[in-house]
Amino acid sequence: MTDPDQGMEALMLVDSPEFERIMECVFGIQPHETRTYFRLLELPGSTVSELADALERDRSNVNRSLSTLCETGLVERERRLLEGGGYVYQYFAVPVPEAQESMHEAVDEWAETVHGRIDEFGP
C-alpha cells in the first residue's frame, strides 16, 4: 500500500482526476486493486478463484488485492459452509455510496490537517 498523504499530494496536481485515481490516492491502493473492487461490484459474493478467472489474474495476486481492500474497508469477506464439509470465503464490495462517504471523510480529515498546519505557521 502507498502512503495516502503522498497520494493526496499527487492528486492535487491533477486538474480533473478520474474517480478511480481519486480512490487510489485516498485509500493508498494500486490500480489493480481498484479494478478488483469494481469487478467485485459486478460479481458480488465471488470467491478468490472466481475473481481470478474474471480478472484474468493469478489467484495469489487477487488474494493480496482482496486483503488490501478488506483492510481499507472497501471489501467485506464472509465465510460460506460447503455441503460436503469445509468452507469458502466470499467477497463483497461495499456499495459505491459507502465508498464515497469514506473518501469524503478521508479528504476532509486530510484538509483539516492541512488547515491546521497553515494556521500554525507564523510569527
From TrEMBL:
InterPro entries tied to this protein: ArsR-like_HTH, Tscrpt_reg_TrmB_N, WH-like_DNA-bd_sf, WH_DNA-bd_sf
Pfam family, one: TrmB
Transcription regulator TrmB N-terminal domain boundaries: 24-95
Protein name per Swiss-Prot or TrEMBL: Putative DNA binding protein
Protein source organism: Natronorubrum tibetense GA33
